[in-house]
Design a protein that fits this description.
The chain is mainly α. The protein has one domain (3-161). It contains seven helices and no strands. Helix 2 (15-27) runs antiparallel to helix 7 (135-161). The longest helix is centred in the middle third of the chain and has 27 residues, at 94-120. The chain starts with a helix and ends in a 63-residue tail after the last helix.
């Protein structure tokens, strides 16, 4: 079994992606300012005070701004994958279900990256504090990357199971009427010579149109 088949199998089951989305959602509630104890342990007494502010400023969690959007998308992704685990079809085929999973997964990854970049740059008190936010912000980023990779697998599943685009019907071929011979009699169909003026079979004038045959006129019965 190829790697694509195995990855498609666990992706369509929904268990791993539902678990990752749930862990990501929970991680946003945890304080993202953890890591000060590690700094205090590995630095000299008093030295950590210079970097304590940029690294350990109090935060309630990852909610706020782009993190809120990522959290909402992660919650929707968990519910969607939980429905897949419960074998609920929801009226969609395999391709469309994977398309929804891929869209939610890509949304979680994109808004998580925006949120992390904001904490590392304009939201941080010091632009040089690369470790700003503690350990939980990196856990959220790692989970978002895993969710994004799962979204790529779902996108391949969608691409493999997408319905074929409707093919426009071909225009009808033009009807080609073969040219009639010059001496063909329009009345009886006798083939005459090219210079013949009258049909050799019925005597029809080949240079004039065939007169229409008129039905005999019926006289109305005399009125009583």
């Amino acid at each position: 079994m190829s790697i694509y088949q195995r990855s498609s199998g666990w992706a369509t089951q929904g268990t791993l992606l539902a678990t990752a989305a749930l862990l990501f959602f929970i991680d946003l509630f945890l304080p993202w300012s953890q890591g000060c104890d590690v700094i205090n342990f590995f630095t000299r007494p008093g030295f950590h005070e210079y970097i304590r502010g940029p690294l350990c400023q109090a935060q309630t969690g990852g909610w706020g701004g782009a993190g809120t959007v990522a959290g909402v998308l992660a919650g929707l992704l968990f519910l969607w994958e939980a429905a897949r685990v419960a074998r609920l079809r929801l009226g969609l085929g395999l391709g469309y279900r994977s398309l929804v999973s891929a869209a939610l997964a890509f949304g979680v990854l994109i808004f998580t990256i925006i949120d992390v970049v904001s904490w590392l740059t304009w939201a941080a008190p010091s632009r040089s504090a690369f470790l700003y936010g503690g350990v939980f912000i990196w856990i959220a980023l790692a989970l978002a990357i895993f969710i994004g990779v799962s979204g790529l697998v779902h996108w391949r599943v969608w691409d493999a199971n997408a319905p074929a685009s409707p093919v426009a019907p071909a225009p009808p071929a033009p009807v080609v009427v073969p040219p009639q011979p010059a001496g063909l009699c329009p009345n009886c169909g006798q083939v005459n010579g090219d210079e013949a003026r009258f049909c050799s079979a019925c005597g029809t004038n080949l240079g004039s149109p065939v007169p229409r045959r008129r039905s005999p006129r019926r006289t109305p019965p005399p009125s009583v």
